[in-house]
Every structure is written in structure tokens, then in C-alpha cells.
Model the fold of this input.
Amino acid sequence: MNPAEIDALVASAQAAKAAGQPVSSLMEEAGAALAAAPAVRAPQLTDFEQTMLGNTEVPIGMLLDLTLPVSIELGRTSMMVQELLRLGRGSVIQLDRLAGEPIEIYVGDRRFAEGEVVVLGEHFGVRITRVLANPGAAGSANAA
Done:
């Protein structure tokens, strides 16, 4: 059914309902129209299925254009709402990390590396000091 046929069917159902006539005859017409409509075919994904079901590796080139969020965690703290409401310009929030301790670098939601804060001209940056062998394993324990 095309949109015009659907609109006509809805309009006739509303007219029948307003006139107090049963709508069941319209439902039969709709069923006949749907039966006459061409069958919908499932998409042919044979190439994709063969790649995914086989032991074929996906080329790394397919992943090079992906964009992932990178987050740098300097530290954490817990505050009550009334403390948050008192924060203003110049307020200092004390974190649970000591100065000089490595900061955590997350890619997506997984801990990926550790690093240190550096200053580049007028900008802050992060120097990666250690890439974790099993990204995410250490981060899941600290995230709680």
C-alpha cells in the first residue's frame, strides 16, 4: 500500500465510525489490499554473512576512520549537593590523587593508558608514560 491508499483507508474508517457503521468491512478491504501488495524481500547479506561466519579477519584499514572518545581522569571526589551549590569561581575541589601520581587515560569507557600532565605553551597536554597490556581490566576495578 502506498501512503495515498493508507490515507484513503483512514479517512473512510473515520467516516464510517462517524456514521455509526461497522468498520469490519474496511478491515477486510485493507487485508485484500495488503495481500495484493508485492511481497517484501529480506536483504541479501551473503557476503557479510560469509565474512562473519568464516574465520576471515576484518582488515585493520576498516577501523582506521573510527572516532573514539578519549577521556583524561585527573582524580575523583565525592561531594554533597549543598557543597556543590556553594561552588563558585575560584573554588578549589580536592581530588583523591596526589600530585605527581599518574593520571588515567580512557578510550571509550576502558582504561587504556597512564600518563602525566604537561604544559605546552599556554595549553595543557598529557604525556603517555605507560600503555596498559590489558586495557580495561584495571579500570573496571577503579571505576566503582
Q: What stands out?
A: The chain is about 35% helix and 20% strand.
